[in-house]
Amino acid sequence: MNNKYIKIYDELVGLIQEGNLKPNTKLPSENELRERYQTTRETIRKALHLLSEHGYIQKVQGKGSIILDVKKFDFPISGLVSFKELASKMGQRAKTTVENLDTITPSDYLKEQLKLKKAQKVWEVIRVRDLDGEKVILDKDYFNKKMIPTLTKEVCENSIYEYIEGDMGLAISFAKKEITVEEPTEEDHKYLHIKGYSNIVVVKNYVYLDDASLFQYTESRHRPDKFRFVDFARRK
């Protein structure tokens, strides 16, 4: 059957997700899989290509296919990484949905976070990040409209940073980050799949251009089971 490789892919995904095939171990070889499923090498290779494309395995020359840890994704603390850049490592397992894009009059809290004057407006961008069919990140972005005068839904679905740096020609330089663990809000329950989880990991970002002007404040709210927040430190 032409779709036999899909069935093999689905079965292997199930074994990986259930932990029967362990992270950081080798997937059975092409020959072993061919014998197990009584099929052709071409069919097995199609299934393996799909596993690699969707972020379940990493092909390593001379070692075969290594099973990746699909339960948690490394989220760099010190770097300025867009979700699109993170998602590129996950293949088609990641999706962004724009729930709201609007120009708003900022609250006193947002004025304080963005160091705004009274008359200034901000963009509010609410996006939900989907991994493996589960809604696990709620991104609430606020941009100084004076610095970022135009935003579209298409830009927000793709990459705002790519638009700012590529189309607008601005240089994003650095960010201050704060990480806290909080109880889920009604908004978290509305947008995320968090049934059974009593905490949300909140990463607040204050992002600056290369002239040290603050243009973005973000609250990125993560379901705690899907991410490791990692950094590299060196003792001088």
From TrEMBL:
Coiled coil: none annotated. Residues 2-70 form the HTH gntR-type domain. The keyword Transcription regulation applies. It comes from the Bacteria. Pfam families: GntR, UTRA. GO terms for molecular function: DNA binding; DNA-binding transcription factor activity. GO terms for biological process: negative regulation of DNA-templated transcription. CDD domains: WHTH_GntR. Keywords: DNA-binding, Repressor, Transcription, Transcription regulation. This is Trehalose operon repressor.
